[in-house]
Structures are given as structure tokens and as C-alpha cells.
Amino acid sequence: MHAHDLAADVAEVLITEDQIRLKVAELGARLNADYLGHELTLVSVLKGSLPFMADLMRAVTIPVTIDLMEVSSYGGLATETSGLVRILKDLSSSIEGRDVLIVEDIIDTGLTLNYLVRYLRGKGPSSLRICTLLDKPARRLVEIPIDYRGFEIPDRFVVGYGLDYDERYRNLPYIGVLRPEVYGGT
Ligand code: IMP
Fold first, then answer.
1. 42 lines ligand 1 (CB under 6 A)
2. What residues form DSSP beta bridges with 177?
3. pTM of the complete model
4. Is 166 a catalytic residue?
5. Active-site residue among 55, 99, 105, 108?
6. What is the full per-residue pLDDT of the chain (186 aa) written as tens digits?
7. Separation of 107 CA from ligand 1 center, angstroms?
8. Which residues contact 166 (CB under 8 A, 6 or more apart)?
9. Nearest-5° angle of CA 113, CA 119, CA 44?
């Protein structure tokens, strides 16, 4: 079997495991305080948010239920800017009358989330807020009200802790930037 060390492809670690752990604990504490006396429904978007969701739900001590969606954006420039999103996996339970928190890995242009927020709002939750681990504001095309933000990062393509390049590197326990050679270019 070909041995390939994923970590060897990483040029720079932007956010360490320890930093992620501390931030998730901090976000969990804020959620516990803000939703005290409520029951929270965490809705996460596969696949990138999986590690964040798994850690965040365990940082929360109030009662939670979870649900998972999977979406894919249509390729191509015209559709990219329209923010058309295809739902590959829908919610499995009704969120009507529930306090819902969207758990996202990263907000880049904001188009995916913009669509998702409109979609979920249409399902009649009693409240709907957004929690994202990473915020890349440089490329934002639509305004997104972010209620809980882990880290603001510069306009660089990052991998790890759920985030992929060509479906790989999701299992790295930290957030990093790949060596340019990995992209097959320069
Ligand atoms: P948006 O609709 O442009 O905000 O895109 C959001 C989605 O694009 C995220 O959920 C990620 O799947 C992907 N994405 C955006 N930036 C990055 C990145 O730096 N690394 C990996 N995936 C990214």
C-alpha cells in the first residue's frame, strides 16, 4: 500500500487542535447561557461540519436534538452567483416551533448559507441562528448575520477538521493550508 502522510502536504497550520478545542468550549458555554431553559436543535451541513458538530454538541449541556442536511452547489459561474443549492439530504424531523442553530464549518461567499437560511426559515422554527467555526469575510457576496463565530480567517483555501480539498484532508485534526504543489500547479 502506498504510504502517504497527509500532514506532509500541509505548508502551514493556521489553527491548532488546542485552539479549536478552547474555541469549541467557549462557544458551548455561550450556547448554554443563551439557550438556558430552551431545547436546542442543531442542524449541521455535511460533510465539512461533521467534526465541529460532533465536538460542539458535546460542549453543550442543555438538551439538544440534532439533524443533518447535505447540500451541493451547482457548478458554473452563473449558478454560483445565483446561489442555487441542491438538497442531497433533507432534515429528518420537523423544526416547526423549535429553536434552531445552524452549525457550519466555514462561511465563504455566503451563498450556500443564504439559501439554507431562507429554506429553513420557511419551515417555521421559533428561532434560527447561525454558528460557524470559520469566517472568511473577504469573499462574502451576500450579507449573513453570524450569531456565533469561531475564527475569522484570511482569504486562503484551508483544509482539515472536516474541510477538504478534493474530498481529502478532512481527517486532519487542525486547520491548515496546503503546499502549492498539492494543487498540481506552481
Ligand atoms: P459559500 O457558499 O461560498 O459560503 O461556501 C461554503 C462552502 O464552500 C463550505 O461549506 C465549504 O464546503 C466550501 N469552502 C469554502 N471555503 C473553503 C476552504 O477554504 N476550504 C474548504 N472548503 C471551503
1. no
2. 12, 158
3. 0.93
4. no
5. 108
6. 666 899 999 999 999 999 999 999 999 999 999 999 999 999 999 999 999 999 999 999 999 999 999 998 766 555 455 667 899 999 999 999 999 999 999 999 999 999 999 999 999 999 999 999 999 999 999 999 999 999 999 999 999 999 999 999 999 999 999 999 998 755
7. 6
8. none
9. 55
